[in-house]
Amino acid sequence: MAVNVTINGRREEAEPGSTLASILEEKRVRPEVCAVYLNRARVDRDALSATIAKDGDKVEILIQFAGGSDA
Q1: Which domains, and CATH codes, for the chain?
Q2: Per-residue model confidence as pLDDT tens digits over 7-53
Q3: Closest Cα partner for 7 from 60, 64, 51?
Q4: CA 32 → CA 11, 17, 25, 26, 36, distances in Å?
Q5: Which bin fits 70, alpha (ψ -120 to 50), beta or left (φ > 0)?
Q6: pLDDT at 71 over 90
Q7: Could you give the CA distance from residue 1 to residue 54 in angstroms, rounded to a whole number?
């Protein structure tokens, strides 16, 4: 039975036992270019593989962008 999680405001289903690292992999997001929050608490990159998403969790993935103007 799937686990219902909200990822960046969108309800999605994850496999039971899915870690935050596996969710990032599924979304093709590299951990080194993002910050991950679980239920409003920041999750350290070292803990992504050990943190399991549970039914009703809210996950926010914030991707870092670099840029600017030479003008």
Answers
A1: 3-63 (3.10.20.30)
A2: 999 999 999 999 999 999 999 999 999 999 999 999 999 999 999 99
A3: 60
A4: 24, 22, 12, 15, 10
A5: alpha
A6: no
A7: 12
